[in-house]
Structure formats: C-alpha cells, structure tokens
C-alpha cells in the first residue's frame, strides 16, 4: 500500500497478489496442505486487499468492503471452510456462479469482476489505461462494463448468501420457540 501513489509499481504488486491468490489454494490442495485456517485466511486477505483499494478509490468504497465482510461472516459461520461447495439448494444462477469452485466461464467472469474491477478502476483513475498503455477509450469502456457486470453478478450471489443466512438464523429461532 506504500506504492499506491506509484501506479506502475502498485498495479504490478496488486496484480501479483491477485495471481498468487489464484495459485495458493490450488497449490495447497495439490500438496494436501489445506486447513480450515487456510480457507479462512485466504478470504480474509482477499477482503482486506480489495477493501483497502475500494476505500482508497471512492468515498463510498467502504460499502463494497462492508458487504464482502458481511458475506464472509455469513458463509464461514454456517458453511465453514467448505463454503464453495455448499450451494446445492441455491437458485440456478447462484449454483452456476459457484459451480466447480468458480472454475466455469460464469464463475471466472464473476471472480474477474470481484478481483479485477477495483484494479481496472484504479488504472483508469491514474491514467494508466490511456496514457501508459494507450488503451483506446472504447476498450476502456468495454472493460469497465464487462468487469462491472461480473461484479454485479457477484453482488447477486452475495445478496443471496446474506439472505439465506438470515433465513437460517430466523428458522433456528422459530424452532427454538416451538420447543
């Protein structure tokens, strides 16, 4: 985060962190080194990084951060480290997003929107796309729309996770009152 004001270095370091996030889980599974703590820590590190970037990009960026933390609490408190595999009773869109641990075209689009949209917007704000990379304006707009659509799909899954957690909590209370 010390490199935030040095766009070329920041984009490089943040991109490396996104890439490592994609590799670390795969490597842990391949080596048989998975754990509940590792699954928890992976999401915590993701949320911290994205949350800090959203908060630096926009005054309202904390809302994206708050939503992601709320979903984290909902998913990990009821589903634990197997949260990615626990969506069999969810609506078809949510199942499609979550299928195969996000390793489907739709899942990759959603994760791309989740992880890459804030970096894309940072690059846009700092003029990296137009001045440094000489990306045409129409490609910048198309990239923004594509990533924003992926992030909106992520939002639909996040809202469903929160809603299903609220239902879970209130169903337990109703059953306790019956007993």
Automatic annotation (TrEMBL):
It is a multi-pass membrane protein. InterPro entries: CDP-OH_P_trans, CDP-OH_PTrfase_TM_dom, CDP_ALCOHOL_P_TRANSF_CS. PROSITE patterns: CDP_ALCOHOL_P_TRANSF (PS00379). The keyword Membrane applies. It is found in: Membrane. The chain crosses the membrane at residues 12-32, 52-75, 96-123, 135-154. The keyword Lipid biosynthesis applies. It comes from the Eukaryota. GO terms for molecular function: phosphotransferase activity, for other substituted phosphate groups. GO terms for cellular component: membrane. One of its GO terms (biological process) is phospholipid biosynthetic process. Keywords: Lipid biosynthesis, Lipid metabolism, Membrane, Phospholipid biosynthesis, Phospholipid metabolism, Transferase, Transmembrane, Transmembrane helix. Gene3D superfamilies: 1.20.120.1760. PANTHER family: PHOSPHATIDYLINOSITOL SYNTHASE (PTHR15362), SI:CH1073-145M9.1 (PTHR15362:SF13). Belongs to the CDP-alcohol phosphatidyltransferase class-I family. This is Uncharacterized protein.
């Amino acid at each position: 985060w010390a490199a935030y004001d040095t766009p070329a270095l920041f984009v490089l370091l943040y991109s490396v962190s996104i890439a490592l996030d994609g590799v670390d889980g795969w490597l842990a599974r391949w080596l048989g080194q998975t754990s509940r703590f590792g699954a928890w820590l992976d999401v915590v590190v993701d949320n911290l990084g994205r949350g800090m970037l959203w908060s630096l990009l926009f005054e309202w960026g904390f809302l994206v951060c708050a939503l992601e933390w709320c979903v984290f609490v909902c998913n990990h408190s009821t589903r634990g480290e197997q949260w990615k595999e626990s969506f069999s009773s969810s609506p078809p869109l949510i199942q499609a997003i979550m299928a195969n641990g996000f390793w489907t075209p739709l899942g990759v689009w959603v994760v791309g929107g989740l992880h890459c949209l804030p970096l894309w917007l940072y690059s846009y704000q700092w003029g990296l796309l137009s001045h440094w990379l000489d990306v045409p304006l129409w490609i910048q707009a198309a990239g923004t729309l594509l990533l924003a659509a992926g992030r909106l799909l992520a939002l639909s899954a996040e809202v469903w996770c929160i809603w299903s957690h609220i239902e879970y909590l209130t169903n337990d209370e109703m059953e306790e009152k019956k007993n």
